[in-house]
Amino acid sequence: MYGSGIWNGMKVTIRHFVNTYLEDIKWGWNRGFTEESFLEQQSLDTRGIFTVEYPEVKLAKPERFRFIPFLVTEPKDHEDDARKGKQWCTACGICAKVCPPQCIWIVRCKDPDTGKPMTEPEQFYIDIDVCMNCGLCAEYCPFDSIKMDHHYELASYDRTTAHIFDIKKLSKEFSYWQEIAPNRAAAEAEARGGWEHKDVLKERERAARSAAKAADSDDDGGEAKGGRAARGQRGARGARGKAQAEAPETPSGDE
After folding, report:
1. Same domain, yes or no: 171 and 73
2. What are the E-state strand segments in the chain?
3. Strands of the sheet with 146-148, listed across from one edge
4. Are residues 84 and 37 in the same domain?
5. For residues 233 and 227, what is the distance between their CA atoms, to the nearest angstrom?
6. What is the CATH number of the domain that holds 141?
7. Residues 75, 174: one domain?
8. What does the pLDDT look like over 108-120, one tens digit per residue?
9. pTM above 0.85?
10. 122-158 pLDDT, tens digit each
11. For residue 84, what are the contacts with CB-CB under 8 A and spacing of at least 6?
C-alpha cells in the first residue's frame, strides 16, 4: 500500500522516542551516569536512544584504543632508590626512526665527566598535531617504554606550544598502564619475565647466576677439602699397616 514504508519507518522512530523516556523514568532520569545503567545502554538489550550525552557521559574505551603516546616511568615509591621515577626509555631512537610522520624528537643524556651518551633521554618531544596515532612507536619499542594513551581530550586555544608535549607531559608511571590496559600489561610482563624493566630483570639474573656460581665454588672447595682429608686418612692407615707387616716377629716366652 502506498505510504506503508513511510509508516513502518515512523513506527521505529516513534518506538525509540517513547522507549527513551521510559528508560529515563526507569533510571530516575540518571541514565548513563551510573555504571549499571551505562553498561545496559551499551549492551545489545538497550532500548530507546543509543547515543550518549557527551561530555557528561563518555563511551567506554577498549584496551586496544590508542591515542597520543606516553612514556613509562618507574613508580616514585619504588623499593630501589636509584629506580624511583626513572624512565624506562633508553633513548635508543627506534621509535623516532619508525614514526611515519616523524613527529618524535629525542636528545640523549651525556655523562658529565666523559661526555659519552647515556641510556636515558634528556629531552623527548612529540608534536601531537602531527602524530597519526598509528602505534608503531609502541609496537617497535624493545623495552616496552612507550605506550599509547587513552586520553583524547587535548583541545586547546594555543597550538604552537600546548601541542608540543615534552618529557614531563609524556611521562606516566607504570601503574597507569596497568590501570588502562591490565590484560596487555600482564601479557607483556609474562613475555619479559617479570613486571620490572628489562635492565632490572637482567641485573637480577646476573646476580642470581653469580650467587649460584659462588655457591657451587664453595661446594666444590668443601668436597675437595673432604676428599684430601679422606685420602690422608687412607694413606695413614696404609702406612701403619705396612709398618706392622715389615716389623720382625717377637718370640714368645714359651719358646
Report:
1. yes
2. 69-73, 104-110, 117-127, 146-148, 164-165, 171-173
3. 146-148, 69-73, 171-173
4. no
5. 10
6. 3.30.70.3270
7. yes
8. 999 888 889 998 9
9. no
10. 999 999 999 999 999 999 999 999 999 999 998 888 8
11. 74, 75, 76, 77, 78
